[in-house]
């Protein structure tokens, strides 16, 4: 039993990001990858927005996803029309998905200035759109657009909108920070009130304009929300959406909330990189949990510490999310960095370790950089090892076992017995 369900909107909100566009083939590969990761809902977009999205809903059925449910996304009906006559709702139903997500207005400013209808008319729009869709789809999710901004300006009306969604029969009510400007304090205060009047299961959908989407969503979960909506790598309009890679890791490892299986948590880094590759975007090295630098150590003290005990400078075991520890060698390096180099077995107390560090520092002073040049570093260490072999040969200080080990002397032939 999961504590929190994951709703991915990379294929809809994620595609609203500047520079991001996926082909139909990409979208299907994304859906399959999200299923592997263990997400519960995959939002495919609005089937009426273009032929590619309409096609996606036909093709995704062939994937026969076992766990993730596919959702189509659209707005509540237009004011003045009956739900059964509303073109948007008809198109949504044509996608024939088990889940339909309807977004509606909950901020009185939008009702007045954008929809230009009365507050009462907005409540009817929400309630009867949801009721109509409930007759045709297994599950209806109501995304309460701008809920937290609406709650700040007119809490009573914002709550009435949620009540209308509940009366309409919504399976979930998802509270949105659409402009991404709210804080964890706002989220907690609003949820305290919502929890008093709404009994429908709640979700949260945060954007990242104040760089608080993860913190806000965590505050939501702390207040009892059981569904989080976001995108892989936080792809999304403006500054992006909730980054599900960070959120899934935080839910599992920091909040103790089950949302994926342990084997799936280990796929986080791979999934993150897969999405960057399909989007043709360079991965963010510094991305928490999944980036190349997330567990990379450069300072001498840090390297020395993690070699003795990883926990000295790492907040989690990188392996849990499929990442790995890295030691960066630069002119900040000490002998501990040399000990950390894979495959050489040099100890930090060895004279050779000190010599290699001195050589690196001298070369970096001349303008070389080894931090991103693992091959060059490997060659440098091997060259130093060969130099040492030469010196050892001249002074005959190395024992026979060493020459055997490095292959300079052939192994002695097996003793033969005379017949
Ligand atoms: Zn959004």
What would you say this structure looks like, in words?
This protein is an alpha/beta fold and 419 residues long. It is 45% helix and 11% strand. The protein contains 17 helices and 10 strands. The protein has helices spanning 24-37, 51-60, 87-94, 108-115, 119-134, 147-153, 155-168, 184-197, 213-222, 244-253, 262-265, 268-279, 300-308, 335-340, 351-366, 374-395, 400-406; strands spanning 5-8, 41-43, 69-75, 99-105, 139-145, 172-177, 202-206, 227-230, 296-297, 326-327. The strands form 2 sheets. The chain has an 8-stranded parallel beta barrel, surrounded by 7 helices. α8 (184-197) links the parallel β6 and β7. α1 crosses α2 (51-60), α1 runs antiparallel to α12 (268-279) and α6 (147-153) packs across α7. The relative contact order is 0.08. The structure holds zinc ion (ZN). Zinc ion binds next to loops.
Question: TL;DR of this structure?
Answer:
With 419 residues, the protein is an alpha/beta fold. It is 45% helix and 11% strand.
Topology:
Layout: E1 5-8, H1 24-37, E2 41-43, H2 51-60, E3 69-75, H3 87-94, E4 99-105, H4 108-115, H5 119-134, E5 139-145, H6 147-153, H7 155-168, E6 172-177, H8 184-197, E7 202-206, H9 213-222, E8 227-230, H10 244-253, H11 262-265, H12 268-279, E9 296-297, H13 300-308, E10 326-327, H14 335-340, H15 351-366, H16 374-395, H17 400-406
Parallel strand pairs: 1-2, 1-8, 2-3, 3-4, 4-5, 5-6, 6-7, 7-8, 9-10
Helix pairs in contact: 1-2, 1-12, 5-7, 6-7, 8-9, 15-16
Bound molecules: zinc ion.
Residues 13, 178, 205, 207, 241 line the site of zinc ion.
């Amino acid at each position: 039993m999961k504590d929190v369900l994951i709703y991915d909107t990379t294929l809809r909100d994620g595609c609203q990001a500047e520079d991001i566009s996926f082909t139909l083939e990409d979208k299907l590969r994304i859906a399959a990858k999200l299923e592997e990761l263990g997400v519960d809902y995959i939002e495919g977009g609005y089937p009426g927005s273009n032929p590619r999205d309409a096609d996606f809903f036909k093709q995704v059925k062939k994937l026969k996803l076992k766990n993730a449910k596919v959702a189509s996304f659209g707005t509540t009906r237009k004011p003045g029309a009956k739900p059964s006559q509303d073109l948007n709702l008809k198109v949504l139903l044509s996608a024939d998905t088990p889940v339909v997500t309807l977004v509606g207005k909950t901020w009185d400013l939008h009702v007045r200035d954008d929809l230009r209808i009365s507050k009462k008319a907005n409540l009817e729009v929400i309630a009867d759109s949801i009721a109509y869709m409930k007759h045709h789809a297994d599950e209806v999710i109501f995304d309460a657009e701008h809920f937290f901004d609406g709650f700040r300006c007119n809490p009573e009306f914002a709550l009435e909108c949620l009540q209308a969604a509940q009366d309409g029969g919504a399976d979930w009510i998802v509270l949105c920070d659409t402009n991404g400007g709210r804080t964890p304090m706002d989220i907690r205060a609003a949820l305290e009130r919502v929890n008093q009047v709404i009994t429908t299961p709640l979700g949260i959908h945060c954007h990242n304009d104040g760089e608080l989407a993860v913190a806000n969503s965590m505050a939501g979960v702390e207040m009892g929300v059981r569904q989080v909506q976001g995108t892989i790598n936080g792809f999304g309009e403006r500054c992006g959406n909730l980054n599900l890679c960070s959120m899934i890791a935080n839910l599992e490892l920091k909040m103790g909330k089950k949302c994926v299986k342990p084997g799936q948590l280990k796929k986080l880094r791979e999934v993150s990189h897969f999405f960057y590759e399909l989007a043709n975007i360079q991965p963010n090295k510094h991305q928490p949990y999944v980036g190349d630098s997330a567990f990379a150590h450069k300072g001498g003290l840090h390297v020395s510490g993690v070699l003795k005990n990883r926990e000295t400078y790492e907040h989690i075991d990188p392996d849990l999310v499929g990442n790995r520890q890295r030691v960066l060698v630069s002119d900040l390096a000490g002998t501990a960095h040399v000990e950390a180099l894979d495959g050489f077995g040099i100890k930090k107390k060895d004279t050779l370790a000190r010599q290699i560090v001195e050589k690196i520092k001298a070369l970096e002073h001349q303008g070389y950089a080894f931090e991103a040049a693992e091959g060059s570093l490997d060659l440098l260490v091997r060259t130093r090892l060969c130099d040492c072999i030469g010196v050892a040969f001249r002074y005959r200080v190395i024992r026979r076992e060493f020459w055997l080990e490095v292959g300079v002397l052939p192994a002695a032939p097996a003793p033969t017995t005379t017949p």
